[in-house]
Amino acid sequence: MKDRVVPMIHVSDVRATVEWYQSIGFSIVNTYGNDAAGGLSFAVLSFGETGVMFNQGGQPSTRFRREVDLYIYTNKVDDIYTRLKDRVEVIEKPHNTFYGMRELIIRDLNRFWVTFGEPSSFELLLRGVSDDNIELVRKTLEDADFKSETLTAALAACSDKTNSDIIELLNNAGAIPPHSVDDETLRRYAGKYRSEQGFEINVTFKDGKLFAARDEQQPMSLFAMDSVSFRPIEWDDYGTFIFKVEDGKTVACVVRHMSGETELKRV
User: Fold this and answer.
1) How far apart are CA 154 and CA 174, in angstroms?
2) Are 143 and 131 in contact (CB under 8 A)?
3) Are 185 and 255 in contact (CB under 8 A)?
4) Which of 39, 52, 150, 170 is most exposed, with minimal Cβ within 10 Å?
5) Residue 135 falls within a domain, yes or no?
6) Mind listing the pLDDT tens digit for each residue in 5-56?
């Protein structure tokens, strides 16, 4: 048997839970009865190659978010939304995340969140660039409507070994070559920055590129929009890093995102 992890969730009504999950596409693997209660005490369900267990004894809750979420990797999130939207409580309609997934979030009858996720169009585009897969790049460009800065991020992800036809496809689709910033200027931006709330990022310079990382997270490679503004290559819609320079010295970094902006002072 292969090593694997299967979550077990305690619910107040196993039978009702099984029926609900069947209605959205899960299959029954096994069930165990509860003769005294005339129902089910335990059930194992599957979805694709994965599974989940439901056990009796759970307590109802009215909280917005409960102790457990289920995250389901799948395909055709928009089709799933069309099929389920009138039958379930939708928390978030299909949307693209900055970390490369397109997600739909619904709530089950026990108020647990269930998220369906698939790689976003931007993630597929970057995958095509990284794998030098011109057909994937071409198909993704045909199927999706990208913003110019998103296409520029994909162009920034290209290397000297990237197929020139891929670069041409990105340019024809509307990519604008990243702004060129000299190494001396980039080195001035490297350093640690901290907000008044304690939010901290570390900006580093390596091999002619800037990287930004929060705490112990993986550094994000940045590309230049102009001489002071930078965006992550792999994380679409994460936000923009804007460095503030006074008297030739970098004094702060403003992280501008959809919900506002945060200023971090250089430490």
Assistant:
1) 11
2) no
3) no
4) 39
5) yes
6) 999 999 999 999 999 999 999 999 999 986 655 678 999 999 988 899 999 9
